[in-house]
Design goal:
The complex is a heterodimer.
Chain A (H helix, E strand, L loop, with lengths): L7 E12 L2 E12 L3 E5 L6 H8 L7 E6 L2 E2 L5 H7 L1 E4 L11 H6 L5 E2 L2 E2 L1 H14 L15 H15 L4 E5 L7 H16 L3 E5 L3 H7 L2 E6 L2 E7 L5 H9 L21 E10 L3 E9 L3 E5 L6 H9 L6 E6 L2 E2 L5 H6 L2 E4 L3 H4 L7 H13 L7 H14 L16 H13 L5 E5 L7 H16 L3 E5 L3 H7 L2 E6 L2 E7 L4 H9 L3
Parallel strand pairs in A: 3-10, 3-11, 6-9, 9-10, 15-20, 15-21, 18-19, 19-20
Antiparallel strand pairs in A: 1-2, 1-4, 4-5, 7-8, 11-12, 13-14, 13-16, 16-17, 21-22
Helix pairs in contact in A: 5-6, 8-17, 12-13, 12-14
Chain B lengths: L2 H29 L6 H10 L1 H15 L7 H17 L4 H25 L4 H19 L4 E2 L3 H8 L1 E3 L7 E3 H19 L1 H11 L1 H6 L4 H27 L1 E2 L7 H11 L11 H21 L5 H27 L1
Antiparallel strand pairs in B: 1-4, 2-3
Helix pairs in contact in B: 1-13, 3-8, 3-9, 3-11, 3-12, 3-13, 4-5, 4-6, 4-11, 5-6, 5-11, 8-9, 9-11, 12-13, 12-14, 13-14
The chains are: A alpha/beta, B mainly alpha.
Chain lengths: 503, 325
């Protein structure tokens, strides 16, 4: 570590926080020292953002204790955290890009002459600040003319200058940056660390963790896995701790029987790529098989799903479904070809809480029929009730509003929506996120039984065991690229090695 | 970034406006040589004094990403109210101060509603327009003549301009120019002014940067209220009367002038100086039509409309290109 002073600047003990229906944090300890870069890692839903929120006063913890600079405190609001010297810089830069770099740095404490802004002094001061961070730019130009990295650095510099931050939280600052820009940010981070600032670095790029972090804290499912010295934790164990076997026990399940010689190829994708989100990827999917997609957050899993479904248009490559090429890439045309996608975030992208179970189930089918053909009510109820029974959706009736159902049942409603379109290929992006263990197992079983009926399924999940249990084949993604393809009965260790890139 | 490119980047729309003004005026000069006389040029300032004043207030509001539709109603209300008060033999300076106070108060009230109740500025100021114009007719349904000596003095005194022979403007004409300089300094050289730009770009970010968003928003609508009251005073001086029907839909001319002046309707980009040229372009088109004499005055509207559209088009192309760069 760069600084031998082991003084703790921030300490959180036994933090609990729950939201309706979810225990977001359970008995989490966290401690940040002065002059260290402390990486906070974990998959989606691990509790990283909740921890940051309680730390910065956006939310309050239910139980636990927090110490800042040795004193016990309760943070009342983001402003309060700010005034104490805890600053957050988000991936989305919260600055005004129409103003100059100097203004963004210094407005609020701008140098004045005769009551008016002294532009010359302000630009000089701003230039000094940026040079201190080894950034040599024209500070009088509008912020919009600079790269995201410079904008991030400006945001960091403002946090240090205006609120003299002692704790700096960087929330995925590098996720939209290229390597050169990332290095620029790292340089600034190291410099600040050497000046005694405590930095919490949130990222899903494991490589970057090893590049800058002194210590690592891992969260999983709202619980603390542990805090480790970076040097003493090999990548493979880090991955293991992030996505490894959870404690819940599942009953045994049998994978869909597969006789690949008899199954015909359903979807053939060749060199699909989109700049900045997916490197060229080829896959072929057979009828009646479940293909798992493993990888860390940001490895390009969702992006591949969106390319196949036509949410994003690929730059190169083509897809064939049943030997018919897809010429127009849009969700609607994919739907007509028999592809369905259950998106990752059901609240934002899937469920319409104000509509009834029946209306939600009918939705995608209606889209397939077009605007002018309507299904009569009886038929609608027939379909809705069929899926309520088939998927065992617990709802008093088909007319219940979906927002009144539990998370697991909402997920089943979405599943029903896509099944109602009789898809040939069903892509499930994190179908079990945020639902309880019992329902998870049910959904996994469902996927297997769907495959047995001849539907081809792509199963994307952060939980490795889930992928392993359901899939006939497993595609491993890393850094927006397909790294390898493994058989479904492979050892867990092999997949982790592929994810970590240490094979 | 090279200096020239940066200068163009920041001042591009302003330069375009000035260029368009020069072109339009030169076309006028070619068609009607009388337009080359200096007095005709300065008449633009005299005839558009109130428009310039409300446009300056509007420019601040638009820079902040807002809109103020109430300005023309405020002009009518101010003209009627001051005419009515002058009939009661109240001292003209007191009347003017009262009017300005009323303008600030109404602007402040609208600003508070917009900010604290989170109602769209469009709706609030539209109601402000109805209220002000309605009140004007409530005070008096017909036109009231102003015969106050001080008002007559302000209206009729000519100020000869230096460097030009036989060229003069009136006292109220200067109000707009002075206001323009003050507002330019405020916008460029004060924390308040920069906060206006910041809010115009992204209110949330401005808030997170610790800027006084509430205070600034309310102040800007108050300033716009002040400007429209001042414009109302200038208006009643130049016509020496007050009437509820005055300045009909002048708010649209003001918005058009601001936009032609290079200020983005989405806020955060622009320059108050450009607004002056927006007003001058508007006035030049009117002048050309007056010299022509055979065209109806509605051609002004069509001309301004087309120009505004072209300008918004240029702007979005400009900003699109910026984005791509």
């Amino acid at each position: 570590m760069a600084n031998n002073n082991n003084h703790e600047i921030l300490r959180m003990d036994n933090i609990y926080k729950s939201f309706p229906g979810v225990q977001a944090l359970e008995d989490v300890d966290f401690c940040l020292k002065k002059g260290e870069i402390h990486a906070l890692v974990g998959e989606n839903g691990a509790g990283k953002s909740t921890l940051i929120k309680v730390m910065t006063g956006v939310e309050r913890f239910d139980q636990g204790e927090m110490y800042y600079d040795g004193e016990k405190i309760k943070i009342r609001s983001p402003q309060h955290a700010h005034s104490l010297g805890i600053s957050t810089v988000y991936q989305e830069v919260n600055l005004c890009t129409n103003l100059s770099v100097a203004e963004n740095l210094l407005l609020g404490r701008e140098p004045r002459r005769f009551g008016l802004i002294d532009w010359k002094a302000m630009n000089e001061r701003a230039r000094e600040i940026m040079l201190n961070l080894d950034v040599d730019i024209d500070v009088s130009a509008p912020l919009a003319t600079f790269s995201t990295a410079i904008q991030q650095i400006t945001a960091i510099a403002r946090a240090l200058e205006i609120s003299s931050a002692k704790v700096l939280i960087l929330d995925e600052p590098t996720s939209s940056l290229d390597m050169h820009e990332t290095n620029l940010i790292f340089k600034v981070m190291r410099k600040l660390r050497d000046n005694g600032v405590g930095i919490i670095f949130i990222t899903h790029f494991i490589k970057q963790v090893y590049e800058v972090a002194d210590r690592i804290t891992i969260l999983r499912n709202g619980k603390l896995v542990g805090t480790y010295e970076t040097a003493s934790l090999p990548t493979i164990s880090l991955i293991e701790k992030m996505i490894g076997r959870s404690l819940a026990e599942y009953e045994d399940m049998k994978k869909a029987q597969q006789d690949s010689d008899k199954q015909r190829v359903l979807v053939e994708a060749e060199n699909l790529a989109r700049e900045g989100s997916v490197e060229p990827i080829s896959l072929s999917l057979r009828t009646g098989e479940v293909v798992g997609m493993a990888g860390l957050l940001g490895s390009g899993r969702t992006a591949v799903a969106e390319l196949i479904f036509g949410v994003e248009e690929p730059d190169t490559g083509h897809i064939e479904v049943d030997s018919l090429p897809i010429n127009k890439h849009s969700p609607h045309s994919s739907l007509l070809h028999g592809i369905a996608l259950c998106p990752e975030d059901r609240k934002e992208a899937g469920i319409l809480g104000e509509l009834t179970v029946r209306e939600n189930i009918i939705l995608a089918m209606q889209a397939r029929l077009g605007w002018f053909k309507s299904l009569n009510k009886n038929k609608q109820y027939e379909i809705a009730n069929k899926y309520i029974e088939m998927l065992d959706i617990s709802t008093p009736s088909a007319d219940q509003m979906v927002k009144n159902l539990s998370g697991g049942n909402q997920q089943k409603v979405i599943l029903a929506r896509w099944l109602a379109t009789n898809p040939k290929l069903l892509i499930l992006d994190e179908p079990t996120r945020g639902i309880d263990v019992g329902t998870k197992a049910e959904i996994q079983k469902l996927v297997i039984s769907l495959a047995e009926e001849g539907i081809s399924c792509v199963f994307i999940s952060s939980e490795l065991e889930e992928v392993m249990r359901t899939s006939n084949r497993i595609i491993v993604m890393r850094d927006r690229e397909k790294v390898t393809e493994l058989p479904g009965d492979v050892q867990e260790r092999k997949i982790m090695e592929a994810i970590a890139g240490t094979e | 970034m090279p200096k020239i490119k940066k200068f163009l980047f920041i001042n591009g729309p302003l330069l375009a406006t000035i260029l368009i003004f020069i072109i339009v005026y030169m076309i006028g000069g070619q068609l009607y040589p009388a337009m080359k006389k200096p007095q005709v040029f300065f008449n633009l300032f005299i005839n558009n004094a109130s428009l310039l004043i409300i446009s300056i207030g509007m420019a601040l509001v638009v820079l902040m990403g807002g809109i103020d539709l109430s300005v023309s109603g405020m002009i009518a209300l101010t003209s009627v109210a001051s005419a009515a008060l002058l009939q009661l033999n109240i001292h003209p300076v007191v009347v003017m101060l009262l009017m300005l106070l009323m303008g600030v108060a109404l602007g402040c009230a609208m600003g508070c509603i917009i900010h604290y109740l989170k109602v769209e500025a469009f709706v609030v100021t539209l109601m402000g327009l109805f209220f002000a114009r309605g009140m004007a007719y409530v005070i008096n349904r017909s036109s009231i003549t102003i015969s106050d000596e001080f008002y007559r003095y302000l209206a009729l005194t000519k100020i000869p301009l230096p460097f030009f022979e036989n060229v003069s403007v009136y006292i109220p004409t200067l109000a707009g120019i002075v206001l323009l300089i003050i507002v330019f300094i405020i916008a460029r050289f004060t924390f308040f002014g920069r906060t206006v730009y910041a809010i115009g770009k992204n209110e949330q970010s401005a808030l997170l940067m610790g800027m006084p968003v509430a205070r600034t928003k309310i102040a800007v609508y108050s300033i716009s209220g002040f400007c429209s009251a001042l414009a109302g005073i200038v208006f009643s001086i130049s016509l020496l009367s007050g009437f509820g029907g005055y300045a009909k839909s002048m708010e649209m001319d003001a918005i058009a002038s601001v936009v032609i002046g290079g200020t983005a309707l989405t806020g955060g980009q622009g320059n108050v100086i450009g607004t002056l040229f927006g007003v001058l372009i508007n006035g030049t088109i009117v002048t050309i039509l007056q010299f022509n004499g055979t065209l109806t005055s509605w051609w002004t509207r069509i001309g301004v409309g087309v120009l505004t559209l072209i300008f918004i088009g240029i702007q979005s192309l400009f900003y699109l290109k910026k984005k791509r760069d």
